[in-house]
Amino acid sequence: MRAVARGAGVAVGNLVYYYPSKRSLIHAVILSLLEYYRRKSSEYLRMSGRGPSDGLAKLIRYYMSDSVASETSRLFRELWAMALHDAEIAEAMDGFYSELHLTAVKLVQSAHPGLTVRRAHDIVQLLGTISEGAN
Fold it and tell me: The whole model's pTM is what?
């Protein structure tokens, strides 16, 4: 905790006031990282292109490129490992992926309006599985 306080330029007492344990500090860091990725992903998907099919193509490129980025792949492997032992992290991870999938489902449906929500969800799941497998 002293090293973190020193790195942040705050007194140890101030750090411990807001984060009374290492676990609470780690949770805050993880939730902050997930929020960063949530914003990054949502922004990318919102700015996905002019037409629906362009958005779908960009979604596929995004999934594939982001999943093999060393920063992302290392971080998310660690987060999923932690989620196996920590319900709060597991809930945050599930929420992150649910929100990301919902946004992607909307993109797929806008590219192919005849698809049911379930079918669009299946396509997004497949894309996610492929991108995770590429990792």
Answer: 0.68
